[in-house]
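ok new one. same drill as before - structure tokens go in, u give me an amino acid for every spot. 223 of them this time. try not to just spam alanines like last time pls lmao
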């Protein structure tokens, strides 16, 4: 299905999704959530990593919802297989294991996003759309952990990184907590304009464009 017409008469592209999880009930639940959205279409299901890689190559979905913990060929191995085919950036990891240690290898392997299975349906749909559009999507807890790495390590282990001031580290820690500029300004008793300046300086020093990329920066630069 190429697309569907919206209320304004314009044709909207349908995002094609492949679900890879070894639990049939989880696959069914994800399918139900996704197919409630008019612009999302589930085109296939896989029960392990090998099947996920094969179906991705065959069906070329826009997004692959990929569990990391599966018998046989697991999610990380599947990501490596997808990377060899140039398809890893279609992967959105959806797992119960939302820890930093499992996010790091998944993102390094090429996954575009990492979220928990516990997210609500609306957040899941938003994540799928973000990855389909080529954006990096990290769950709040993962972002916080990775940005904390940038705050405390600010670069690869044993290597110098961008020098953040004490105030910039405070601001970055609050960014990691999901706070807006206005909330950060209130928390630090500073003008919102001042916070915007700090945020701009942080992003410039890290060489990234936005808050999410700051978290991803920590992944790309850690050994």
């Amino acid at each position: 299905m190429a697309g569907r017409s919206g209320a304004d008469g314009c044709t909207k592209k349908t995002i094609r999704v492949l679900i890879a999880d070894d639990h049939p009930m989880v696959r069914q639940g994800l399918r139900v959530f996704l197919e409630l959205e008019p612009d999302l279409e589930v085109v296939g299901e896989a029960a392990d990593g090998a099947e996920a890689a094969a179906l991705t190559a065959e069906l070329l979905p826009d997004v692959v919802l990929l569990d990391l913990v599966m018998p046989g060929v697991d999610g990380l191995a599947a990501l490596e297989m997808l990377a060899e085919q140039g398809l890893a950036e279609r992967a959105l990891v959806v797992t119960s294991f939302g820890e930093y240690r499992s996010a790091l290898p998944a993102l390094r392997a090429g996954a575009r996003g990492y979220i928990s299975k516990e997210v609500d349906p609306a957040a899941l749909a938003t994540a799928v759309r973000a990855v389909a559009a080529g954006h990096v999507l990290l769950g709040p807890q993962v972002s916080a952990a990775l940005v904390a790495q940038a705050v405390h390590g600010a670069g690869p282990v044993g290597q110098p990184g961008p020098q953040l001031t004490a105030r910039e580290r405070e601001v970055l820690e609050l960014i990691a907590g999901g706070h807006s500029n206005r909330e950060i300004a209130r928390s630090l008793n500073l003008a919102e304009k001042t916070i915007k300046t700090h945020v701009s300086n942080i992003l410039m020093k890290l060489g990234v464009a936005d808050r999410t990329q700051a978290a991803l920066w920590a992944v790309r630069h850690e050994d």
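The CA atoms of residues 49 and 74 lie 5 Å apart. and btw Strands lie at 3-5, 11-13, 15-20, 40-46, 63-66, 91-95, 113-116, 137-138.
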